[in-house]
Design a protein that fits this description.
Distance between the termini: 15 Å
Helix content: 25-40%
Largest sheet: 2 strands, antiparallel
Number of helices: 11
């Protein structure tokens, strides 16, 4: 049977909308102001949907394989505060961080300053949740022992400075949590009509950035034509290359 992954926005929304009523959700990962974030960041998913018996398991497994490059994403501060530590590191730290830290949301360490609409680190008196872990994270960030992604740096930069430097950008000054910039970075949504995300397109997306083989495939087109003329049932031909 030919396999297709239909990543239409309405299908994704329908599936992920049901995450809002998962009874076993934990305050650490839920609720989310935009439930689509759990589609992109594994540590925002309730434990019940990560199990092998979950109807979401294969969907999440397929999405997690897609290369995620969020360096060009411009997200607002409110959205960044809902992301987990594991989703904002530009590269793995030299010393692996514990899961107790990697799954925490950034709102544990940072806060939105109303007067400037910019993110800033929490003061010691503002660290009411996991204060020891929060201070440790901020210390690691100051010492460059963990490197955060560029999209998280942007909400700290004042508006008048944003157009300057090596990576100019237009700040997002909105206040609503919105996963759309991250979904667009993965080409999972578009402004035009949504098409079928076929298995071929999916495989090509997964190998994006990988160096192509130096030699062409040993079988020419005519040989493949002969191969598909073998008297085999269709189910036996359903293989992935």
């Amino acid at each position: 049977m030919n396999v297709h992954i239909t990543c239409r926005v309405n299908t994704t929304d329908y599936l992920l909308h049901h995450l809002q009523v998962v009874a076993s959700s934990t305050p650490r990962s839920w609720p989310l102001d935009d439930y689509r974030l759990s589609f992109l960041f594994p540590d925002l998913r309730p434990a019940v949907v990560r199990s092998h018996n979950s109807p979401f398991y294969l969907l999440f497994k397929a999405v997690d394989i897609l290369p995620s490059d969020y360096q060009s994403v411009v997200s607002n501060a409110a959205t960044c505060l809902q992301l987990p530590v594991s989703g904002v590191l530009s590269r793995p730290p030299v010393d692996p961080i514990r899961r107790s830290l990697s799954q925490l949301r950034l709102s544990t360490f940072y806060v939105l300053e109303p007067s400037t609409n910019l993110l800033r680190a929490r003061t010691n008196s503002e660290m009411t949740v996991y204060p020891y872990i929060a201070r440790r994270f901020l210390r690691l960030a100051r010492e460059n022992k963990i490197i955060i992604s560029l999209f998280l740096v942007r909400p700290f930069i004042p508006v008048h400075v944003a157009p300057l430097g090596a990576h100019p950008f237009t700040p997002d000054q909105s206040n609503a949590v919105d996963a759309t910039p991250f979904l667009k970075a993965l080409n999972l949504i578009s402004s035009g009509p949504a098409g079928i995300f076929s298995s071929k397109i999916y495989r090509n997306r997964c190998i994006a950035g990988v160096n192509p083989p130096t030699q062409k495939h040993p079988l020419p087109h005519k040989k493949w034509t002969l191969f598909w003329k073998f008297t085999l049932i269709y189910a036996c031909r359903n293989v992935w290359y």
